[in-house]
Backbone:
């Protein structure tokens, strides 16, 4: 079975914040092509940009939560047109989490996840029973530099608890997919 990652590298020019609608259509088509190419060999696909909530050297999230909810919805619709895509596990773009500051709520990625899911429910017709994804991608960078496994474990559990709390607020029962 294949676990595919289809990100900004899959489209000419990568993510274009000046023309996000065009990028959305390009990434939806690129993802659909990957589904078609691998067919039934494909078990899961992680879509869109790596860590969309990271600032990537700027002053705000690379992709805002409403834009990301729209993009994930559109990719899911396009992939669902393919027979192999109907049963595919779609993983959201991996949300970046860290423990560099005092505000765990923002640092863990939970705030971004909350706003992303709320945007989907409010603006794109998501319900607990009808989500455009099966798993939440997550990249928790906690305890960086620590050599104490207990410290790292405690920090990881705090971050995971924050993410689970968000899912519980929406009544969503899905797994986190930690790929970094």
Residues:
């Amino acid at each position: 079975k294949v676990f595919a990652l289809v990100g900004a590298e899959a489209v000419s020019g990568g993510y274009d914040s000046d023309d996000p609608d065009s990028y959305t259509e390009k990434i939806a088509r690129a993802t659909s092509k990957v589904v078609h190419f691998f067919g039934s060999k494909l078990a899961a696909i992680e879509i869109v940009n790596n860590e969309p909530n990271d600032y990537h050297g700027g002053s705000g999230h690379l992709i805002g939560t409403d834009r990301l909810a729209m993009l994930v919805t559109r990719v899911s619709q396009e992939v669902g047109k393919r027979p192999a895509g109907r049963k595919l596990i779609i993983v959201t773009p991996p949300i970046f989490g860290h423990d560099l500051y005092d505000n765990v709520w923002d640092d863990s990625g939970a705030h971004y996840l909350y706003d992303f899911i709320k945007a989907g429910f409010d603006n794109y017709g998501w319900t607990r029973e009808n989500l455009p994804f099966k798993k939440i991608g997550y990249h928790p960078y906690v305890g960086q530099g620590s050599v104490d496994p207990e410290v790292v474990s405690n920090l990881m559990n705090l971050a995971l608890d924050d993410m689970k709390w968000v899912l519980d607020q929406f009544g969503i029962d899905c797994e986190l997919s930690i790929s970094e």
Observations:
- The first strand starts at residue 2 and ends at 6.
- The mean pLDDT is 88.
